[in-house]
Amino acid sequence: MQTHALHLMVPGSTRQAKPAAVRKPAVKAKRMAKKPAVTKDPVTITYRPRTAADDDFIVSLTKSELGDVHQKAFGQPFPEEQFRTYIQSGAPTFVIERNGKPIGYYSYLTSYDGKMHISAMVIQPRYQRAGIGKAAIAKIEEDARRMGIHTLEVFVQDNNEQSLAFTRSLGFQEVFRFEPHTIAFHKVIAQSVAPGFGTGMPPMGMPQF
């Protein structure tokens, strides 16, 4: 925008007065108030052995997350009592806690030939896709190596797309299938030293979910 200066004539003189200087209003610098730093509570993930007091939580969570998958794969309702019997049988089962609150669990069985079958790992939906599952698998691998395990095994139903993607992302490879809808995956974590590797069947007494 152009600004035009106004020239004033002084009486009795032919000299032009100098234009008055236009004083710009002083602009006070605004001090930006510092926003308080947003601090998030630290998140601590821990694992502890299952107790009898955890059974209702474990069964309810498993039924909620895998009930529909089991129904579609096997044409039968989720075997709640069979699963409860399994976790009470002494199979190693660990509760995953976030800041002291249970949010999931995993369970496994080991076999004489150096395999560990991860029979279940379930995490509450609100805590999925946050790296908790991957961290749990990393811990399982670490514990398995200490136990002399060379191969991890997991069975996933072919209609469980989320679990299939998760399993493959962890480096598990499909090794065989059996009816009606089960895909078996293996992940080799150490050199095999035991004969009889690869029975192709779930450990005895273990329900399929």
Automatic annotation (TrEMBL):
Keywords assigned: Acyltransferase, Ribonucleoprotein, Ribosomal protein, Transferase
Ranges for domain N-acetyltransferase: 45-190
PROSITE patterns in the cross-refs: GNAT (PS51186)
The name this protein goes by in its record: Ribosomal protein S18 acetylase RimI
Highest taxon above the source species: Bacteria
PANTHER family per the UniProt record, alphabetical: AMINOALKYLPHOSPHONATE N-ACETYLTRANSFERASE-RELATED-RELATED
Pfam families xrefs: Acetyltransf_1
GO molecular function terms attached to this record: acyltransferase activity, transferring groups other than amino-acyl groups
The species this protein was found in: Alicyclobacillus hesperidum
InterPro entries per UniProt: Acyl_CoA_acyltransferase, Bact_Acetyltransf, GNAT_dom
